[in-house]
Amino acid sequence: MAKIVSCVNLKGGVGKTAIAVNFAAYSGLQGHKTLLVDVDPQTNATFSCIEPEKWGDVAKKSGTVANLLGMRNFSAEGAAPAAKDVIVPNVFTNVDLIPSHIDLFTIDLDLGGAAGRELKLRKALKPVLDQYEIVVIDCPPNLTIPTQNALATSTHFVVPISPDFLSSIGIALLLSRIKKLCDDLDHSLAHVGIVISRVGRPAAFREKTAASVRAQFGKLVLDAELKERASVAECASLQQSIFQTNDQNAIQEFTAMSKELLARL
Questions:
Q1: Host H or E run for residue 90
Q2: What's the pTM?
Q3: Which CATH number covers residue 185?
């Protein structure tokens, strides 16, 4: 059975997409057939894997995750595409991609009254899950319908945070809201951990925040931390994983983080 992990936080700018993309890349390099699913309308994970021009062609000809969630459902035959149709194969070694679409910005307006709206992704992915060992879902920084679908599909979730006050104070709220969603959907979901990411230059307030998070959440916090590095953004702009860069420090950090996540899964 595939391990399905959502990367989720209520705040943006915490390294969520970098963790999702590079954890998927690492899993693929370890020989695990992996599927990366982008449900964030900002499409950052998508553009970290394929060029915008290719995305445009794929969106027009094959569809995106927006189709799987019940939007943009059109084709030459008049039927909505299935998951197998929208998968972009081999964006990294052993890693396939289901790309996102900016249409998801309005999905809560368009599907707000739809029956079973939180379960559309789960139903769409079911026919292809037996092809994968690991599925990684990059979520938007909120708990709207795309994130609800991701969590309802997942077996696990991970919470990336940056060591700043605003990033850390929302953890308890996020965890309580996820618990309520799972209770409402009668869905079992395991919290695989908290990743401290985008660590900048040494500063007392950052160290205090990180120490506070570790004190409050204990073993839920991964040992590995990810520093703020230009190479991470550079790789994303080149549609490469961090493991294709020459930045050995970044490679070591993402390797340590990914090893911990795989062990917890």
A1: strand 88-92
A2: 0.94
A3: 3.40.50.300
